[in-house]
Amino acid sequence: MEDEDLQPRARLAADKPLEEYSVEELEAYGEALERELEQVRATLKGKRAYLSGAESLFKS
């Protein structure tokens, strides 16, 4: 595993203050963030399951 794999990769989509967005733009932005959060949670679940499997393999 490379050191860069351990660093968080934050993505900031807002290029201007949120107050400058319209209601519709903010709703779309919020929906996009929710979809991305779902993907993050699913990926974390898979990685945690993988690590748990690896840990149990080496405990035996």
Question: Summed up, what is this model?
Answer:
This protein is mostly helical and 60 residues long. It has two helices and no strands.
Q: What does this protein look like?
A:
The protein has 60 residues and is mainly α. It has a domain at 24-60. It has two helices and no strands. It has helices at residues 3-6, 23-59.
* Number of separate helices: 2
Beta-strand segment tally: 0
Fraction of residues in helix: 55-70%
Radius of gyration: 18 Å
Structural class: mainly alpha
Written as H for each helix and E for each strand, in order along the chain, the element string is: HH
Unreliable residue stretches: none
Secondary structure elements and their pairing?
Layout: H1 3-6, H2 23-59
Which key phrases capture this entry?
60 residues, mainly alpha, 2 helices
